[in-house]
Amino acid sequence: MTADDTRATARPAPAVATDPQPSLLARLRGPLVVAALVAAALLVLPLFLDQFRLNLFAQYLCYAIVAIGIALAWGRGGMLTLGHGVYFGLGGYALAMHLTLARIAEDPMAPGGLPDFMEWSGLETLPLLWRPFAHPAFALAAVVAVPGAVAALLGWAVFRQRVRGAYFAILNQALAAAFVILIIGQQHLTGGTNGLTDFPTFAGTDLYSPEAQWVVFVIVVITTALIYLLFRHVAGSRYGALLVAVRDGEDRVRFLGYNPTWIKTFAYTLSAMAAGIAGALFVPVMGIISPEMLGVVPSIMFVLAVAIGGRYSLAGAAVGAVVMNAAQTTFSENFANGWLYLQGVLFVVVIAFAPRGLAGIAQSIAATVQRSWRARATGGAAGSAAGAPQETDASGSPR
Amino acid sequence: GCGPAGGSDDGDTVKVGMLHSLSGTMAISEVTVRDSVQLAIDEINEDGGVLGRQIEPIEEDGASDEATFAEKAQKLLQSDQVATVFGGWTSASRKAMLPVFERNNGLLWYPVQYEGLEASDNIVYTGATTNQQIVPALDYLAEEGHESLYLVGSDYVFPRTANQIITAYAEANGIEIIEEEYTPLGHTEYSTITSEIEREEPDAVFNTLNGDSNVSFFQQLRSSGVTADDMPVLSVSVAEEEVDGIGVDNIEGHPVAWNYYQTTETPANEEFVAAFQDAYGEDRVTSDPMQSAYNAVYLWAAAVEEAESFEVDDVRAALDGIERDAPEGPITIDGETQHLAKTARVGVVNEDGLIDEVWTSEEPIEPDPYLTGYDWADDMAGEE
Amino acid sequence: MTHPLLSLNGIRVAFGDFTAIDGIDLTVNEGELRFLIGPNGAGKTTLVDVVTGRTRPTSGTVTFAGQPIHGRSEHRIVRTGIGRTFQTSVVFEELTVTDNIDLAAHFRLSPLGLLRRRRGITATVGGVLERTGLAPLAGSLAGTLSHGQRQWLEIAMLLAQGPRLLLLDEPVAGMSRAERERTGELLTEISADHTVVVIEHDMEFLRRYARDVTVLHEGRILTEGTVGEVQADPRVQEVYLGRNQVTAPEHDGGDMLVRTANEEG
Amino acid sequence: MLSVHGLSAGYGRARVLFGVDLDVADNSVTCVMGRNGVGKSTLLNTITGLITATSGQVTFDGTDITRRPAHARVRAGIGYVPQGHESFAPLTVAENLDVAWEAAGRGPRTLVDGALELFPRLVPLMGRHAGVLSGGQAQQLAIARALVTNPRLLILDEPTEGIQPSIVAEIEEAIATLHARGIAVLLVEQYLDVALRLADTVTVLDAGAVVHSAAREDLSTEQVQSLLAI
Amino acid sequence: MDAILNQIPIGLAIGAVLLLAALGLNFTFGQMGVINMAHGEFMMVGAYTAFVMHAWFELNPDYALVLAIPAAFVLTGLLGLALEVSVIRRFYGRPLDTLLLTFGIGLVLQQIARDIFGAPNVDVPAPVWLAGGVDVLGIRLHFARLFILALAVLCVIAIAYYLNRSKPGRQMRAVLHNRDLAAVTGIATRRIDATTFFLGSGLAGIAGVALTLIGPTGPTLGHNYIVDAFLVVVVGGLGQLRGTILAALALGLLNAFAEFWTDASLAKVLVFVAIIGFLQARPQGMFTVRSRALT
Ligand SMILES: Nc1ncnc2c1ncn2[C@@H]1O[C@H](COP(=O)(O)OP(=O)(O)OP(=O)(O)O)[C@@H](O)[C@H]1O
Ligand SMILES: Nc1ncnc2c1ncn2[C@@H]1O[C@H](COP(=O)(O)OP(=O)(O)OP(=O)(O)O)[C@@H](O)[C@H]1O
Ligand SMILES: NC(N)=O
Ligand SMILES: [Mg+2]
Ligand SMILES: [Mg+2]
Known about the structure:
The complex is a heteropentamer. By secondary structure, chain D is of the alpha/beta class. Chain D has one domain (2-228): Rossmann fold, CATH 3.40.50.300. Chain D is 35% helix and 27% strand. In chain D, the strands form two sheets. In chain D, strands 6-7-8-3-9-10 form a six-stranded mixed sheet, with helices on both faces. Chain D has a four-stranded antiparallel sheet with strand order 2-1-4-5, with helices on one face. Chain E is an all-alpha fold. Chain E has a two-stranded antiparallel ribbon. One adenosine-5'-triphosphate sits between chains D (11, 14, 16, 34, 36-42, 83) and C (143-149, 174).
């Protein structure tokens, strides 16, 4: 058999189907949609929601930020993190420490210049740990840097040793448990179980005037949007694909010349930073940060929100967080005594019957509609479908 | 659920909030407190309500989570516009709700003994402050001739503050503090501590453990063979409700300090216990926090009648001096601190799981949340 | 062209009591196309594992392009210019074929570069898709590929990596005849400017494309030489080829195996 | 013995097989051939119950087994060696064999001895974890494991993949021996010479459908080659 | 010095409790890869079984506890079985999802317990013959602890036999590793799954009964043990019985000594740090089987 024969028997190879270069509009579509949603949230929601509900919505958005981060680390990177409460807490405490000092600075009743719990614990001067938090800039930087640093350190230590899957999940869970115990045990520094609460002012302005609350709301909405866009970009980059590759074949990735330790650590750190920002926003929104909100159960709740929304989709995860928390509020307001049943059933039903969450349901509906019209080949749902296991479609997936 | 629209001022009902943990770890304690509040509301409604209006409770679940308490408080005040709220148990939940009530000028009735060092205009404290529980308990132990104490507590603000007070008191009264141990909330392994207690042989143990930990602690202490005769363990967070879960065998004979027991002999208590068991079952017991919560509703109603208004400012102005013959005996609101004058009592757990009074302060003790009236407490941190 | 590119010195690998590689010295020169054969369990894959950092040798050294590389981590070794495929193909099932290859092609990008969005298909990736016949499957998720298609994807990823030394572990196992031939052509082509080491059990393939052959047996080198030399070696027949293979060729004129052997001489 | 009629199957929405018909007569060797990715493994997976058919029928010994779970098919007498030398990595080689022998209902213990006779190289490896075997060792184990389930129909998906030439010859002999013992064989094999030496019937698959099926003696090697080169 | 020696039996006793709590997980988590967060609630069901024995059936505490052990095993086993058959079986191959699913189920079980038995803890009287303890070489051993230790040892022996000597044990390991391959090898994977889950859940029930001897019996009982129990399995190595035993005892001792030298809060943190450190040295736990497969 000759070489020519060989060619003849080879499968017909048409010219490489290069991806069409997406048009500028297509590329901007995601950001434009997000901008429209932001505008809608800022302009329309206040017409329908009272101050309290608006505030609750801002709270849900804080959870949505955490969810976006988890969707990257878990949905894309396969790192099931059951300890994101820790990072949420670190961000929250960083800002709350500043706000506490700000309150004391203005409170003539606190002559020692110390938070009450420090006085009860017999401290006479402000601990070193607290001092830099008097500066708002330091506190704001710490909101991102502290969770980031802790996550980077832990991530590096465990990923380097190829601790993953269930091991990683359980370890994170233990981290959350240990962290809560640590915070509670260091009452003279942290306020113990009481947490930090009562933040009347920020940068000299009354935090609870309607105007200030409005500003907080705007900041939360815009931050959520920006974080979504940032994470969407990351997920859509080569790095995003690499993350999925590490999730599905960490060892194999090494033989492509990449070091999975850093790939994972980066995503984990990024998602911890998002959680830190969320925690910090939560503080002026809800007026409190306490250990109860950082432990194992709240951490699992974060992940559940992502599962419900759809772990493979950043937008889905964010929506999931809002929906799950809104459902929880609704259930508990209407059935104070039995809402846990409803919540439990919601979890079970969604996870059991919609493994790809709300986003998955939305996608299959969209796909069905699309098919019944006529396949429009290009443009996947913004930042969503890539990396999702697809049991369908041998003939190519959206790119 | 959400009641009919409208503020508290119109219609023939008045809305009040009930905000306790119905789920999560604190549900163990708080559900019974909710039951007592409900009982008082039902009784008052039966008698024609307050200012001629029926009380309409709006119930929310604090879910053993501080942020949820803050959120639900905000909801009750802003969305439901309730006239007042009965709620909370842990100090953390109170601290979480406090700024919300202050900002919205609401009024919270908080029913549990606590660590003191607080007096908000927007909270009425119907449980004991430290000088009505911890200090009398120490007096009792001193009177009984105990000269060395071992302190064990859950790791949070109430036990830590209580132990500071105990330490200061001990120093002033020549009592030796052998050891001060804290365990995380929900801790269940007490072998290390019980064997240390066995080894150190203190005269008595002062126990500020909270919740589930008490069960493990007493069970494991009992396994070590330590009995109340050898070494009494005085508890300040164990009431009738907890005794059954701990197991009567394990705690029988040990003292507890409160203002009220199911066995307290007052006419009002006979009625209260009867009414409670009538409403919720013969097997149910009553306890100090339940009674304080029950009182709170009546005190609020009395203040409203006095003020002839549901407005918080009017009600607050009417608080000072409101009296009542409560199940625990006479109580009076101190308008300045918004705490109550209460009678202190030490009791001992009997074989039926109830508590028999063995010591009492006879007279109601004026509330002193900052312990300003005690010389030995001068060194302690306090704001005033 | 005879600079040693890769040299193994006194490599020993023991797993507990069992010695999988028992003192191997091996040199692969720049530009070689070397076949590595030997019975199942002889230690071929383990040897590749040692070179690529997957298994640490119990003793011995590995030198690549003048630098010692044993003890380095896997991704560093790749970065010095060694790429491999796996006997049991492992591809990223939830990425498209294109993404799989694209990642292989871009490991040299800086962290910031990685964070940029991929726009279209780069020339390297496009070329590899074409060469391996995977172009029609470019958009499919790798998880939906058949066994043989995965083998191709492994090869495609290796090509995209552009290493100096390519180590292929049974690349044509499971491939159809036609595709085996295409792989052979491809390897010949690549070996023009790369160094290639192939592990194979397919004798027909070996005879057609191999230049030098090294035979491993029980963790040692049994013999080295040209295809003809090795095939004729009775020890190789004994432990590896089996007597039948060499002694009973002519009974069927249509037998590929024999025909090829005849052609080659 | 085995009769496949109008079988269609796929993965989720992706359809791979389109109405495949196939018969394996008692005591015969049927060889399925086709280029990479045409659906050979999918066909075998559907016959053995790993994938559920979307339509069509699989009949074994006259009983319709289309909806039966995979393990029941094994117990009914269908042994399967899937593609890709898979084994139970955490179990030792001996345990791999035992687990299969027990699961299929403990035929005579001689089955295990017989399998080991066929693959003597497994004997010194009995205590080793299957996860550390070399590719070829694992493939030998996979075949041995199917044999100890005491099959009346043995289905093999590229059994010689990764196996050294001398053992390929031995496997070939073994299949012939099994055949002689009355066991029917359904084989997917890329080595044309091996396939053609063993097969009684050759079925060629392309794009999920049967494009040719004939008795071995009616086909020349060249014909098969051209069928495979579509 | 005596005080230090005294921490050894304390540590072993803590370890025995951890071991008992972790044994069931060794099946459901270690063998099947199901991260069953409802395991704690299964323990709670076991504990309430003991309560029901004496409160509803009014059995004498002296033997109610002994009867409760098989009853709890069967009851929680059946509960687990029901769970497996109805939902969990949809999840094989998605171990991390089972975590979330079972977490939801755990919440519901807690609420059910609250509605049946009330929110407060209930009293499960210990048999008289378990009161007190003995002094051995100046170290005090409590009968209740010895009983738990003995129970743990019995369970370990039974499990070891099941896993290594018996046919289903082997099949279980085969199924966990490769479900499809197991099916085409003739293993009735569904039955194996169901059996495994039954056993793992049943063991949780036994643990629950034992826990009534040393801790509170209430709706949230499981919370106190679940995190530690998972850690034991992780440190021991998934599905490794030897590892689970050693890890439980090691963590028990570590807890006891850390608490002795610092305090209970800091001890928990130290244990966590120690585990991270340990995983640096042995990332896959104490005992694991190496496989050459790439992941
Ligand atoms: N981690 C390990 N523990 C114990 N033995 C091992 C381990 N890894 C490999 N082996 C053994 O080392 C020997 C060499 O295996 P290797 O995979 O290198 O063989 P090979 O030459 O590639 O064989 P094949 O042609 O079958 O792929 C085999 O006997 C194998 O069982
Ligand atoms: N899990 C899957 N999901 C979707 N499509 C799949 C999946 N597995 C295989 N396919 C597709 O089904 C078709 C047939 O695959 P199959 O594995 O049956 O081929 P094959 O004939 O056995 O090929 P080979 O000779 O390469 O093993 C292929 O085109 C493949 O892309
Ligand atoms: N106030 C208390 N007991 O927490
Ligand atoms: Mg090999
Ligand atoms: Mg195939």
